[in-house]
Amino acid sequence: MNYRNFGRPGWKVSEIGYGMWGMASWSDSNDDESLRSLQAAVDLGCNFFDTAYAYGEGRSESLLGQTVRANPTKHLYTATKIPPKNLKWPARPEFTLEESYPPDHVEEFVHRSLESARLEHFDLIQFHTWQDEWMRQDRWLYRLDDMRSQGLIKAIGISINRWEPWNGIGAVRSGLIDSAQVIYNIFDQNPEDDLFPACREMKVAIIARVPFDEGTLTGTLTKESTWPEGDWRSTYFVPENLIPSVERADAVKKLLGNWNREHSTTITMPELALRFILSNEDVSTIIPGMRKLSHVRSNIAASDAGPLPAELYEQLRQFRWVRKPTPWSQ
Questions:
Q1: Once rounded to an integer, what is the mean pLDDT over residues 35-43?
Q2: Average pLDDT over every residue of 45-53
Q3: By residue range, what is the domain housing residue 83?
């Protein structure tokens, strides 16, 4: 495992972190299997774990807390997110700060998350949704700043809405946040345009989420893929999303197959997706979901493999896909 600097806090975090959404909000998640996978990640050098209260109303946070307590001699960086009071994802322009993150709500959920995890503090607290318009008010910061002075949290971040990398640049340039979590992958290269340069200038850490495009970039989905009712993916992968996503992923798969034959290599689709992101030095850590031991081992191995060959990396530039939020994109 290789490590990178996490912005102004100066933490040294594993470049492959751990995204914990699937451990509570997707079908077929199992707590015992999740705990084994978390421990395997720790043993392989992973030290950054990202969860949220909304992931099972504290269930995922509880698993993180158990993992931290099981490893008292290791510094595991813990990150969670405050849900919006109106429980609407993503934040829309018409949602006010008072509707989404009034001070009392913010404080309540920091304490709820600490209780769920049975931890004395979180290293990073993030707003689970964001609108840069909220920067016109300063109430969003004061309560968190008070809790930071009490030692309950160490750093503050935002999680940027899907396909809106521009909608966080104001927060980054304010100098008031320590991290920005954003979707960044082979398809979603837009954060490189304006967000990443702003983060670089302000020394704000970048957490890259959704490296596999919710699964299409693993190369395992088909146009006929389905999910059980209640699984988030069943509402996200509507035909107008699933079909073009699979078609584009198949094109990536074809390019990779040709590369592997020409260069006698065996790069897999998940490895390609992770190493594409690792090729960008602006990224502090990637947080793929890893519910199974096999996922942990293969994803962490991408760190040892390092960035992609420059020629292959440049060929993937053609797959940049500019998408706009829709009612189903959440």
A1: 96
A2: 98
A3: 3-214+268-312
